[in-house]
Design brief:
This protein is an alpha+beta fold and 227 residues long. It has a single domain (12-226), classed as Jelly Rolls, CATH 2.60.120. Helices cover 14% and strands 35% of the residues. The strands form 2 sheets. Strands 2-1-10-7-12-4-3 form a 7-stranded mixed β-sheet, with helices on one face. Strands 5, 6, 8, 9, 11, 13 and 14 form a 7-stranded antiparallel β-sheet that branches. α1 packs antiparallel against α2. The longest helix is centred in the N-terminal third of the chain and has 18 residues, at 59-76. The chain binds fe (ii) ion.
């Protein structure tokens, strides 16, 4: 188990299909439907997420309001970081589901990983990633990509990097379904033990699984496959 607290630095970002990472904008929907609850139990957070996805199918509205709800939840849920699993010694990563009901249009999990690179991919659903921990935990450098083809040829895609952002513990980022990124997870900037760094820890919310719209891109061969 990892013992730490959620960092107080509050930066929220959003990324769409254009690959431009920018500070998250305010939702246009009213928050009246989501009054603050105290204590904000996990069950109440899940219920608010359920109401949110019932009330709109607009990815941007969902990620903007879900980020506000996630901030509220994580500010009280110091126990979440203790749910992060130790990375597997072979894959250097590990996932622990917190909520998954196949009939529910979202799922919540925590993920831990040591320095490594991901492929270039889209999630196929709206998603929220909150980086947990403090300055002693790992970070992740995100590169955001966009498609530059007409999306008419099966398995063919021209993708190019458009922007990048270092995500530090305390940051939250929201992705629309068609946003594309790859990640370099990195150790803390001043990691005292580079051979055994503390992992990057994430609290993730993913919208309804959509395998047919979830792509892994090969930017060198201009191809993509479902994953
Ligand atoms: Fe991703």
């Amino acid at each position: 188990m990892v013992n730490s607290t959620v960092c107080s630095k509050l930066r929220n970002f959003e990324v769409k299909a254009d690959g431009i990472c920018q500070p998250m904008e305010n939702p246009s929907m009213s928050l009246d439907e989501f009054p603050c609850h105290s204590p904000y139990y996990f069950s109440r957070f899940l219920n608010d997420l359920d109401c949110l996805v019932e009330s709109t199918s607009d990815d941007l509205e969902i990620i903007r309001i879900a980020t506000i709800l996630t901030r509220r939840f994580l500010s009280e849920a110091s126990w979440i970081i203790n749910m992060c699993p130790e990375p597997d010694p072979e894959t250097f990563s590990a996932i622990h589901p917190l909520y998954r009901d196949p009939n529910c249009p979202f799922e919540v999990h925590v993920f831990s990983w040591l320095p490594q690179n991901s492929g270039v991919h889209s999630h196929g659903s709206w998603s929220i990633v909150a980086i947990l921990g403090d300055a002693s935990n790992g970070r992740e450098l995100n590169y955001f990509w966009s498609r530059f083809d007409d999306e008419k040829k099966d398995g063919y895609a021209i993708v190019k990097p458009v922007s990048k952002q270092m995500l530090e513990p305390g940051d939250i980022i929201g992705f629309t379904s068609d946003a594309i990124h790859n990640i370099k997870s990195l150790s803390a900037e001043n990691e005292p033990n580079p051979n055994h760094p503390k992992p990057t820890l994430m609290f993730n919310i993913f919208g309804k699984r959509n395998p047919s719209g979830r792509y892994m891109f090969n930017p060198f061969e201009n191809t993509f496959t479902n994953y």
